[in-house]
Specification:
Layout: E1 31-39, E2 42-55, E3 67-76, E4 79-80, E5 88-91, E6 142-143, E7 149-150, H1 152-158, E8 162-166, H2 186-200, E9 212-217, H3 219-229, H4 237-242, E10 254-258, H5 267-275, H6 288-305, E11 308-309, E12 313-314, H7 320-339, H8 342-351, E13 356-358, E14 361-363, H9 366-373, H10 391-395, H11 408-414, H12 425-431, H13 434-439, E15 448-454, H14 462-474, E16 478-484, H15 495-506
Parallel strand pairs: 5-8, 5-9, 9-10, 10-15, 15-16
Antiparallel strand pairs: 1-2, 2-3, 3-4, 3-8, 6-7, 11-12, 13-14
The structure holds 3,4-dihydroxybenzoic acid (DHB).
3,4-dihydroxybenzoic acid is lined by residues 95-97, 120, 122, 218-219, 261, 391-392, 459.
Length: 507
């Protein structure tokens, strides 16, 4: 049954030869669905084949999560569509590093969102007020005329692309023995296994398996970035073999990442560098001793990355603010203001006098920007909470241990000053972080990147996107990175442009 699941390392088969029956895509097993999708070019009637809840590994731990849906357009506005060689949007709907299932979806972009406890809840659905308890795959999508969100997945289908929506295990899953079986690195292992399933079915599954474009938002954006950075890394082989992933490449062509909550082991320090002086929503300052210690540690980390930016040289904490302002914040404010009517722009500028508007360009200072954003979302430390209450503490749980510290700083703050992280953690952290793969210029990485975050998103530091984009630029990859002015967590304000970008980079 699982001949291809053994071994796990060594050569990667290019096709499905020798694959178990269980991992063979049945192209006749679909339901035909017709739906109307609102796009920039008006409403489109899309007829598509919907393949549902396909288990993508031979030794699933939990099929509810280790399964994927495939949507293949066959007719758009009455015209026959052949998606045989179309790009494949691989849209995960992971939020909060929680379990994510597509098994109950009745159509494209309909993955049910698992309940989000605590502060790690993504505000994706809240920001558009659908209130349905559902989040569209691959992020919010853009808001159509009726105030409904149109997801990347739906827009991709309306553009004639194949859409694959993978489920994945998440941090809260626990079996009857009390073992947490969805903690790191389960989610990325599952997404890689799903990519391998698609690749192993090259020529059978519709779409061009060499043009897989991944998308995700927040934790899903982090996983999408990780999928892009870590393509074909042998570091996951034992995990992939254990759950019976197909023996095929898991490299992807392009990676679309919205507000990626990544580089978690450096996220506390980065957060204090960015938002350290911002007060909480309650109006109180966070512990300034802790904040300053973390901020100091960030300087060393930033220097260690040895990133370069045009006109600034090596990025350090001395010029990182200037880099963020020039590269992201000012262009973002400029685009926002340029799109407003003269009256609305005048009104906005009158109540935001920290912005200078001259010759169609906005300029501003980092300090004024921080004041403008106002309340920070998280206390300090933002990710490795002293009391182990953060979602990320659970993400790095292990066995029957629900939550662990994953930074020396928080571990030692709570325990002895010579405490050591559990010995498995350095390796596990690396499996969850795109940055080390990029530091090694992983040859299997995606070479095309779409990266977005809202300027008012304080779920993590804006340096996460800044550094990811800088690293990729330094590697010579094709990067389209931008921020949405005044947008909060989970925003996706240019989904139509992302769909066009896919056509461009895959064309
Ligand atoms: C998400 C948000 C967070 O603030 C976080 O720490 C992890 C994940 C999310 O929305 O997916």
């Amino acid at each position: 049954l699982d001949a291809q699941a053994s071994g796990g390392s060594g050569t990667k088969a290019s096709g499905s030869t020798g694959s178990a029956v269980a991992l063979t895509f049945d192209k006749d097993d679909y339901t035909e669905v017709t739906t109307t999708i609102t796009t920039d070019d008006g409403d489109k009637t899309v007829k598509y084949h919907f393949y549902k809840a396909i288990t993508y590994v031979t030794k699933p731990v939990d099929e509810k999560y280790q399964s994927l849906n495939v949507s293949v357009p066959v007719e758009i506005d009455g015209k026959t569509v052949d998606a045989t060689d179309a790009p494949i949007l691989f849209a995960n709907s992971v939020g909060g590093y929680m379990p994510s299932s597509v098994a109950d979806a009745t159509g494209v972009g309909g993955a049910a969102m698992t309940g989000m406890p605590g502060s790690a809840a993504p505000s994706a659905s809240a920001s558009t007020g659908t209130g349905s308890g559902e989040v569209d795959s691959g992020g919010n999508g853009q808001v159509d005329g009726q105030g409904e969100t149109v997801s990347n997945a739906k827009l991709a289908l309306a553009a004639g692309y194949v859409v694959v929506e993978p489920g994945a295990r998440g941090r809260t899953l626990v079996d009857s023995d009390g073992v947490y079986y969805g903690v790191a690195p389960a989610a990325i292992v599952d997404l890689k296994a799903a990519v391998r399933y698609v690749r192993a079915n090259k020529g059978v599954i519709p779409g061009d398996t060499d043009r897989i474009v991944s998308s995700g938002t927040s934790a899903g954006g982090a996983l999408s970035a990780l999928l892009g950075a870590s393509g074909d890394s042998p570091l996951y082989d034992s995990y992939l073999a254990e759950t019976g992933a197909a023996d095929a490449s898991d490299a992807i062509f392009a990676s679309g990442d919205w507000c990626p909550i990544t580089d978690l082991e450096h996220a506390d320090m980065a957060y204090e560098w960015n938002w350290g002086s911002n007060k909480l929503g309650s109006g109180s300052l966070v512990d300034q001793t802790v904040s300053k210690e973390l901020r100091t540690a960030f300087a060393d980390y930033q220097a260690s990355l040895k990133l370069k930016a045009k006109g600034l040289g090596t990025l350090t904490v001395r010029n990182l603010d200037e880099y963020l302002v020039r590269t992201f914040l000012e262009p973002s404010a400029t685009a926002y203001l340029a799109a407003l009517s003269d009256t609305d722009r005048t009104t906005y500028l009158a109540s935001n006098t920290f912005i200078t508007w001259k010759n169609g360009k906005a300029t501003l200072s980092w300090e004024d920007f921080l004041t403008h954003v106002g309340a920070r979302k998280k206390d300090t430390p933002a990710f490795d909470a002293f009391d182990l209450s953060a979602g990320e503490n659970n993400l790095f749980g292990k066995g029957t241990t629900e939550a662990r510290h994953f930074t020396l700083y928080s571990l030692r703050h709570e325990g002895s000053s010579s405490a050591r992280l559990d010995s498995d953690l350095p390796a596990t952290l690396k499996l969850m972080n795109p940055m080390p793969f990029l530091a090694k210029a992983n040859p299997g990485r995606a070479k095309h990147w779409w990266i977005r975050v809202g300027t008012k998103d304080s779920d993590t530091s804006l340096t996460v996107v800044g550094n990811l984009a800088a690293k990729l630029e330094n590697l010579g990859d094709d990067v389209d990175a931008a921020m949405y002015w005044d947008a909060g967590h989970g925003a996706n304000e240019d989904a139509a442009d992302f769909i066009k970008w896919i056509a461009k980079v895959t064309g």
